[in-house]
Each structure stands twice: as C-alpha cells, then as structure tokens.
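Thought: the user asked what Copper acquisition factor BIM1-like domain-containing protein looks like in 3D. I have the sequence; next I should run the structure tool and report back without guessing.
Action: structure_tool
Action Input:
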Amino acid sequence: MAPLASAALLLAASAAVVNAHFTLDYPPTVGFNEDKEPNGPCGGFTPDFTTDNVTDFHVGGDNVAINLLHPQGTWLYRATLDQTGASNNWTQLMPEVMQTGLGKFCQPAIAVPESWAGQKGIVGVVVDAPDGLLYQCAAVNFVAGAATSNQSTCTNSSGVTGSYVTDANLAPLAAGNSSASSTDASGTASGTATQTASTTSGTSSSTKNAAPGRVGGSVPLGSATAVVLAAMLGSAFMLL
Ligand SMILES: *[C@@H]1O[C@H](CO)[C@@H](O)[C@H](O)[C@H]1NC(C)=O
Ligand SMILES: *[C@@H]1O[C@H](CO)[C@@H](O)[C@H](O)[C@H]1NC(C)=O
Ligand SMILES: *[C@@H]1O[C@H](CO)[C@@H](O)[C@H](O)[C@H]1NC(C)=O
Ligand SMILES: *[C@@H]1O[C@H](CO)[C@@H](O)[C@H](O)[C@H]1NC(C)=O
Ligand SMILES: *[C@@H]1O[C@H](CO)[C@@H](O)[C@H](O)[C@H]1NC(C)=O
Ligand SMILES: [Cu+2]
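Observation:
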C-alpha cells in the first residue's frame, strides 16, 4: 500500500476509535449510543425492567466487562437499588481504577452489599476519559452468592494494566449527592455509612489507592503522545 494511503487509513481508524468511547460488554447494557454516552447517569438511556435484558448479578462477586476505545481512562463502578438511577443514590463498589492501554478490561469479582440479594437494581460504570465523563448501565437482578464461572467476554486485552487512583471528576458521582451529604475523595463525609465504599471486592489484596494518585492530565506530553501513537497503530492493525 502507498505510504499516503496507509496514513489516511491510520487517520480514519483513529477517528473511528475516538468516536466510539467505550462499550459495556457484561452485564449487557440498557443502551449504547456514542453521541449520548456523555449523558449521566446511564448514557442517555433510562433502564426499563419490563423490556431490558435483566441479568442475574451475584452479590458476592460477578463480572463487569468493558471495552475502552481510548488509550487511557479511569473507571468508577457503582450500583443502586433505584431502578431508574434518577435518585442519584449510588454505592461505589471498588476504588477508582485507571486503565492504561486500549481495549478490554474486566473486573471478575465486583461485589455489592449482600442485603441486596433478591432485589433488582442498576450496575453503572462511569469513565473519566480524555473527552470527558462517559456512562453506561446494566439492569440487573441481584442474586445470592458469587459467580462460579467467568463470562467469555471477561478478558483483559494484552498490554492493558490497571492502577488505583483518586479522580476528582469521579468523586462527586461515587456516592451520590442527594440527601445533603457532602462527599470527599476519601469517602468519609457521606451521610449514610452504607454509601461509602465499605464493600470490598475480589481485588481486596490490593491496598486502596496504593498507586500514586496520578490521573490522565498529569502524564508528560511525550509519553501521552507515544500512547496515542501506539493506540493508532494498534487500531490500524486490528482493521487489517
Ligand atoms: C441479553 O444479554 C445476553 C448476554 O450478553 C445476550 O446473549 C442476549 O443476546 C441479550 N438479549 C437481548 C434481547 O438483548
Ligand atoms: C439509598 O440506597 C440505600 C441502599 O443502598 C437504601 O437503603 C436507602 O434507603 C436509599 N435512600 C434513598 C433516599 O432512597
Ligand atoms: C475469573 O477470572 C479471574 C481472572 O483470571 C480469576 O482470578 C478467577 O478465579 C475467575 N473466577 C472464576 C469463578 O472462575
Ligand atoms: C484485568 O486487569 C485488572 C487490573 O490489573 C485486574 O484487576 C483484573 O483482574 C484483570 N481481569 C482479568 C480477567 O484478568
Ligand atoms: C448534585 O450534583 C449535580 C451536578 O453537580 C447538581 O446539579 C445538583 O444540584 C446536585 N444535587 C444536590 C442535591 O446537591
Ligand atoms: Cu470518547
């Protein structure tokens, strides 16, 4: 292929990647529209338990599988028993984690409070991506116990890594801001104890926020450019 043509292909590929943001692959999303994905709490869709794909989600730990189409982003995992998500009464499920590297990222054992078993609710993910906050939700049926096998979609792309960070953009979304509770990054000021991240997931061997609190914006320009270039090359290879 002529150099010019391959350069054009590369540009087209990277443009497509930027538009797609991210997908929630498990549990199945209540709706994906890349243009609406910046709209909280659920990416422009309101869960409807009469028509949506309502998935059993084990309170003791279950898969949340994501595909990030940006080279970096920081994830907030949260859930609520409010079936619309509108009351903004979310419980954070694990410390915020920064994904570095484009592609699939799966938490195999996200847990919710045990007392939720037998009730319906929403599992929500929010990413602080280079182009802002993006949202997706799944309608779920919380069931007792822990998942006994992993979904086939629960994989990490090669080269993808995760590290615990604190993210000022995600902190206000972590425990909701209803009922006059002020939430700070360390999760101590919330009005109700159940709303702070008292739930530990399968990743409990990692110390909370052990990694340096470095978020996207502070990466030196040189390495950020290298990551973007690597991502562009990666996406071009995927198309070929
Ligand atoms: C519901 O989700 C499952 C698991 O992802 C999927 O296989 C199935 O096609 C979905 N059904 C509908 C109606 O979306
Ligand atoms: C918020 O959710 C918790 C369960 O996590 C529930 O006990 C509480 O009643 C809810 N608060 C409101 C105002 O709905
Ligand atoms: C799911 O996958 C993770 C990561 O590979 C593994 O540690 C865990 O044991 C698996 N869980 C089950 C129930 O097989
Ligand atoms: C994917 O990577 C994250 C961060 O390192 C890790 O916590 C998780 O267990 C990995 N998932 C799988 C399926 O191995
Ligand atoms: C919650 O946060 C949103 C966005 O910052 C804000 O518009 C809203 O007024 C807040 N609600 C309360 C009750 O503080
Ligand atoms: Cu995006």
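Thought: the tool returned a structure. Summarizing for the user.
Final Answer: Structure for Copper acquisition factor BIM1-like domain-containing protein predicted. The chain has one domain: 3-238. Residues 9-18, 177-240 have pLDDT under 50 and may be disordered.
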